[in-house]
Specification:
It is built from six helices and nine strands. 27% of the residues lie in helices and 18% in strands. α4 links the parallel β6 and β7. Bound molecules: acetyl coenzyme *A (ACO). The site of acetyl coenzyme *A (ACO) has 23 residues, from α2, β6, α4, β7 and α5.
């Protein structure tokens, strides 16, 4: 993705992490320069968010600078700093963050957890299938110190499912009612599922999760899901989980 301004002077490396502040890492300069740089980073995030939404056929973007300012999420930008005679282009974007979710395993046990999530992922059309997605994803895994199987993915596209299978051998996705997907390996081994023994899955008290945001692809109000109510109103099988449907969205 090309920009009118010099991307390389703002984004100082081939992968740049941006969070709430929208300040690129290593920034130095006075206040006026700072606001100029932040405005340009906001432009980049917005345009990459729009491109990702278009690529996924979504009516509105999941990723915007405005939302990033309000959320504890990270956007990783992939930059080709040599393109355009050194002005640089942005070739990809990956957004991650933790979400409070109810996740069911294959046996119907449900967990109330806040796993690291893949929220938005996009490589420019002209650069797809050249390994850039893997490069960006691997960087994220390393920075966040997480294994691929421990991630929840927000409504993955067929391309992303194929990507996860090809690069990480993850298949047989478990689709959740909240439209997230997890894979085998997300849950602890059966011997670790006992109460209080799992470091990966945090069991919340009944009043532990009452709030959720209204951003993103699941932000619009939806009618109650009768199947969801039936399932959630069953007595918990293996945990003291709260009952009643809860959908965490971005
Ligand atoms: C939570 C979410 O964000 S869901 C939405 C995910 N994003 C999209 O679907 C937007 C459009 N797609 C893309 O931006 C990219 O294709 C990504 C991000 C999914 C993958 O990035 P890439 O740079 O293409 O991945 P990379 O080159 O490392 O790996 C290629 C593999 O990804 C998968 N893949 C990439 N493009 C395609 C495609 N057009 N059709 C099917 N599979 C694809 C395949 O497994 C492919 O391996 P193959 O070429 O041997 O078949």
């Amino acid at each position: 993705m090309e920009f009118k301004f010099d991307v390389s002077s703002i984004l100082p490396s081939s992968i740049v992490e941006v969070n709430q502040s929208l300040i690129p890492p290593g920034f130095t300069g006075d206040r006026r320069f700072l606001s100029n740089v932040v405005a340009k980073v906001a432009d980049i995030v917005d345009i990459m968010g729009d491109a990702s939404a278009a690529a996924q056929g979504l009516s509105k973007p999941i990723t915007t600078a405005d939302r990033l300012r309000k959320a504890d999420q990270t956007v990783y930008l992939l930059v080709d700093r040599n393109a355009k005679n050194g002005k640089g282009v942005v070739t990809g974007m990956l957004k991650t963050g933790r979400k409070s979710l109810y996740i069911f395993d294959r046996d119907g046990h449900h967990y109330h957890i806040a796993p690291p999530c893949v929220l938005d992922f996009y490589i420019h059309e002209s650069r797809q299938r050249q390994g850039l997605g893997k490069q960006l994803f691997e960087h994220m895994l390393q920075k966040e110190n997480v294994e691929p199987s421990k991630l929840a993915i927000d409504r993955p596209s067929e391309k992303l499912l194929s990507f996860m299978n090809k690069h990480y051998g993850l298949q047989n996705a478990m689709r959740q009612m909240n439209n997230y997907v997890v894979f085998d390996g997300f849950f602890p081994e059966p011997t670790n599922v006992e109460e209080g023994s799992s470091p990966a899955l945090t069991k919340e008290p009944a009043n532990g999760l009452q709030s959720f945001t209204t951003y993103g692809r699941y932000g619009a109000p939806r009618p109650p899901c009768s199947m969801g109510e039936i399932i959630h109103n069953q007595p918990p099988i293996q945990s003291n989980e709260p009952t009643g449907p809860q959908i965490a969205s971005q």
